[in-house]
Amino acid sequence: MKKTPAVFLDRDGTVNHEKGYLSDEKDLKLYSYAVKSILMLQKAGFKIVIITNQSGIARGYFTEKKLSVIHKTLLKMLKDKGVIIDGIYYCPHGADDVCDCRKPKIGMAKLAEKNLNIDLSKSYVVGDSIRDYLMGYNFGGKGILVMTGHGKKQYAKLKDEKRKPLAVSKNLYEAVKIILKDYEKK
Fold first, then answer.
1. 10 is catalytic
2. Superfamily of segment(s) 6-184
3. What is the pLDDT of residue 182?
């Protein structure tokens, strides 16, 4: 079976507005361009996977059960607009925990690769953090930093990073246009 490229999307600050430890589905608000952006990727043949560090679980701010409700709500919001998400993967650990899933580590991507038959070498990560785009490089793909969410603060730290993103974009919509253009080159 032929492997398919994916676009891994960070959740908070990329697909939906950054809330700071989103712990209630009522506070979930999609960016106005999120649906259009993801539909463009789907039409181009990418699998869409949401990957999110959720250290709020380790900190006791919310439970995995509550996170499940938030994710079900997010999936329904997107499905109601015609968007199908192929998978959602999260890391429940804190920054000091030893795990292989917290971005920029690649545990979530490797699990998605196995479960969804993804070609990581042709895949991308889009997020509002340096650790998001670094995850893309760490699994052999590419990454884009968006200026929404924590992106502007993260951008200021780019000068200290050896590996730069494929691009820095205004938002998810602009990142999708970059991905589609870059993927055509392959």
1. yes
2. HAD superfamily/HAD-like (3.40.50.1000)
3. 97
Catalytic residue among 10, 24, 97, 132: 10
Question: Does 12 participate in catalysis according to the annotation?
Answer: yes
Identify the three-state secondary structure at position 43: helix
**Which one is catalytic: 12, 24, 27, 160?**
12
Q: State the burial class of residue 133 (Cβ atoms within 10 Å of its Cβ: 0-12, 13-18, 19+).
A: buried
pLDDT for 185 equals 79
Burial class (CB in 10 A: 0-12, 13-18, 19+), 181: exposed
Q: pLDDT tens digits for 116-171?
A: 999 999 999 999 999 999 999 999 999 999 999 999 999 999 999 999 999 999 99
Rounded to two decimals, the pTM is 0.96
